[in-house]
Structures are given as structure tokens and as C-alpha cells.
């Protein structure tokens, strides 16, 4: 059974402002022990409560900087929550940042092995999937050379072929991927559709509201790190469109953090 349970989840980033300061300002600030580049706190997620079960297809919508990708990365375990609890049960396939984590000095074949192990495959299941992944990628002899020699599109092909080779229970998608050239993109889209149909639970972030309306059973609307509303796709999308036309929302305001500023 696949399950997502977020209780009062918050994710906060502490980031340095990248301000250019003159030498004089730097010295004066130093005298008063104040950092030249003070910390800012970005509350990317706040008070998120979300439950989802088998069979649900959840679409996440909202303005730029609303926290959609952060929500997805929290579900994938990339960002640990700084508040609340996040439980995800089931084998996860994350279709975002898919080329991250390649061993660039290793060959395509070795990268298939490394990543398949990371995705939870055993040595026996890796062996049976190796050829299938290689065939899907259509990279042929290039699999014998180091990944650093691949073009960006070739890296995407390989990453996509590996990421989608598992049968996920929980599928996390950040925008529909355009992978590789025209021929590969249509093949990749067919595989995406297959994964979406076979995975038990899906969460997809997209700005294309038509895709969300057609694909999802529930829509979650986010604003400034919070869930504003969730429910039937048509109803929530209409409310979001209406609100955006009335008053477009910008990214969340950042907050100066005095206690961290002197760090
Ligand atoms: N690694 C990070 N470090 C610092 N701040 C971050 C980080 N990732 C996201 N943020 C901040 O968190 C907020 C939410 O970002 P997020 O990427 O989740 O938004 P989004 O809704 O996916 O936006 P978009 O539609 O533009 O992709 C933003 O203010 C962003 O600057």
C-alpha cells in the first residue's frame, strides 16, 4: 500500500544575502560584530497537512516560489522537514533533477548499476534490468565510455531510462519532462503515461493547468509555502485562475534573522 501523510510540515532555509559591501562598510560592521552578509530565513513550507492514499493522483499548483518543488523534494526525502512529520510509504520514483548524482568519470554501464542499487534494486534484479535500461536509452556503444563525454540530451536519456525502470508505488513528478530529441521524447512520454497508470499514488507539480485537470483526482493549491485549498481539480483550478487574474501572488517575502546575523 502507498501512503503519504504530512502533519504540520515546515521547511525553512537559512540563506546568506549576497550583498556587495565596500571595504569600509565591511570594517565598520566587523567592529560592531555584525555580518556583512546577514542571514535571511525563507519559510518555503509552513503548516502543511496532506494525506493521500492508493489510487490518488494529486496535482500541485501555485505561483512561482509557492513551495511546490520544495513539497515534492520533502516527499522524496531530499529535504528533511524542519517542523512536523513527513511519512511516505511505498517505493518512490522521483522524476526531477534526474541527472543529479551521476558519477561522471564512470561509464554508462557502471552508472546504471550504481543508480539501480540506490533505487533499491538487488544485484539479481539489476542484472535482469541492465539490458532493458540500456536498450531503452538507445545509447549503444556510448555506454562503454565515461558519462562526462555525453551531451546533455544523452545524460537525460540515460537518467530517464534508469529512473523509470523501477515499478514505483509513489511517483513524484516535477513538470512533464522534455527528455532528449523528438523521437526519444515521444517514447519517454509513453513510458511516463504507463508509469502514471501503474503507480499507486502520484504527486505532480505543473504550471500547465490542462495537464493537471486531465490527469489528477485532486488538486492542491499552494501560496507562500502554505496550502490555500485542496479538492476537485476543476473547482480548485477555477479558484486559482480567478485569484491569479485578480491579484498575482509573488514569491514569499523573506525575513531578516537578527539572531543569525552575527554568525
Ligand atoms: N535550496 C534552497 N535554499 C534556499 N531557498 C530555497 C531553496 N529551495 C527553495 N528555496 C526557496 O523556497 C521558496 C519555494 O521555492 P520552490 O522552488 O519550492 O517554489 P515553486 O513553487 O516550486 O516555484 P516555481 O513555480 O518557480 O518552480 C522560494 O522562496 C525559494 O527561493
From TrEMBL:
Gene Ontology terms, MF aspect: ABC-type transporter activity; ATP binding; ATP hydrolysis activity
A Pfam family this chain is assigned to: ABC_tran
A GO cellular component entry from the record: membrane
Keyword Translocase set for record: no
Domain ABC transporter: residue ranges: 26-249
Keywords linked to the UniProt accession: ATP-binding, Nucleotide-binding, Transport
SUPFAM superfamilies recorded: P-loop containing nucleoside triphosphate hydrolases
Claim: Nucleotide-binding is one of the keywords in the record: yes
InterPro entries membership: AAA+_ATPase, ABC_transporter-like_ATP-bd, ABC_transporter-like_CS, ABC_transpr_TagH-like, Bact_Polysacc_Export_ATP-bd, P-loop_NTPase
Similarity annotation: Belongs to the ABC transporter superfamily.
PANTHER family in UniProt: TEICHOIC ACIDS EXPORT ATP-BINDING PROTEIN TAGH
Protein name listed in UniProt: Teichoic acid export ATP-binding protein TagH
Species name: Frigoriglobus tundricola
The organism's taxonomic lineage, starting at the top: Bacteria, Pseudomonadati, Planctomycetota, Planctomycetia, Gemmatales
